[in-house]
């Protein structure tokens, strides 16, 4: 059974492996992180952990039974009772309901533990899988949005 875990420094090796192994897969539907992300991964992770410590963001990994990172699911820009949701699931774990499970789990955590009252999200128009996950988990379209220069949709969900 997968588990949501708050991002910790010891996730670094598995998280970097996850990002490297799935880079091309992710780039097909979301803007690529770029070479700089991988070259400066440790610095980026330290910055994320500092943001998390400050309460600005909440970063999570979806961990498998063996500790493998199967996905990431995060809350960005936590403020005024809400946050932006972002997630990505490994290619080999996609299509089995893991993203839907993770979004539902994080929404419950956001409401119960983090005290949030709403979440926002966005996805590109060509990412039908993410659109389906957001619809299944109670998000509704509230407008259009550009993501990395690509057309997309903006979503919102009350908690």
Automatic annotation (TrEMBL):
Q: What PROSITE patterns does the record point to?
A: GNAT
Which Gene3D superfamilies does this UniProt record tie to the protein? Answer: 3.40.630.30
N-acetyltransferase domain span: 2-159
Task: Name it.
Answer: GNAT family N-acetyltransferase
Q: Which organism is it from?
A: Streptomyces camelliae
């Amino acid at each position: 059974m997968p588990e949501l875990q708050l991002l910790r420094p010891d996730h670094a090796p598995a998280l970097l492996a996850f990002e490297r192994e799935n880079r091309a897969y992710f780039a097909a539907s979301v803007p690529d992180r770029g070479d700089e992300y991988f070259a400066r991964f440790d610095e980026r992770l330290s910055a994320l952990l500092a943001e998390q410590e400050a309460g600005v963001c909440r970063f999570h990994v979806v961990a498998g039974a063996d500790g493998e990172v199967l996905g990431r699911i995060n809350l960005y820009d936590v403020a005024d009772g809400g946050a932006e949701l972002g997630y990505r699931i490994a290619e080999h774990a996609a299509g089995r309901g893991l993203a839907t499970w993770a979004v539902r789990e994080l929404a419950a955590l956001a409401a119960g533990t983090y005290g949030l009252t709403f979440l926002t999200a966005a996805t590109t128009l060509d990412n039908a899988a993410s659109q389906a996950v957001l619809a299944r988990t109670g998000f509704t379209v509230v407008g259009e949005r550009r993501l990395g220069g690509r057309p997309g949709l903006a979503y919102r969900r009350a908690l």
